[in-house]
Amino acid sequence: MHKILVLGAAGQIGSELTLALRQKYGNENVIAADIKTHPDKQITEAGPFLHADCMDKQAILSIVNQYKPDAIFHLAAILSAVAEENPQKAWSVNMTCLQNVLEVARSVPCQVFFPSSIAAFGPSTPITFTPQDTVQRPTTIYGVTKVAGELFCDYYFQKYGVDTRGLRFPGLISYHTLPGGGTTDFAVEMYYKALKHKKYTCCLRANTQLPIMYMPDAIRAAIELMEVNPSKLKHRNAFNIHAMTISPDDIVHSIRKFVPGFTINYQVDELLQQIANSWPRSLDDSAAHKEWGWKPHFNLDKMSEDMIKNLSLKLNMSVQA
To answer: What is the pTM of this model?
Structure first.
């Protein structure tokens, strides 16, 4: 990669990925684009930023023709919880945007990164140590678009030679950007509420185990995958990656090590609980280890310590005993 376009650059993943890519490849070589007109100044002022709707193929093509990137990170999508409120719109947006990106990449050509998710699995998938290659029968429209997206990307690689690559992200935790409608948003909110109010009402059951990853690991994984020599890749769309399996109760106990007196109660959202119950508890990511050297750096307590430290600075708050 030499010049990179990030679509959905103002989102939870995109905002941090853009900063990381600019730090590595140079501000002028990473073009950020988003449908939001007023994203964070770190995105708009450090390097090129353009307003773009990924539903508009010509808008994407215009950016690509102007800046000539050799890689596109396509992160624009409607996430799981929001998608269930309007499944027809979620299908239209998620699939049309991806098709537009793939068509542009076919004509240029350039690499494409597509973020898949544990939502691509379903209740008929092995729930623990979920294999890289296994049955994928999701029960959410978000998951359906992710499976379709994986297959779509594979098709464009096999049919047209587009260098498509992807990761199945677990739930992601970040202090940079507020959550945007995902089922695992509770995990991020918990840290904010711990600092602000020292209490939180959780939408999932205390013992609901889910695969979770700290955003720095996720960003590093995406960049490492896109940088690896394609001859090393047997799989492409998309790799399982795993860091930790934790429950809301596990997060509470970890936060209390840094925010004493933090309390929690549970008011279960049945829709979100149903979605969470359909997802794996852990992933077999041996293919990612073997093919491009994937390895997570953060465990739960290391993540909690870093989250609390950075959120304290961001919110200008000190931790009180």
So the answer is: 0.91
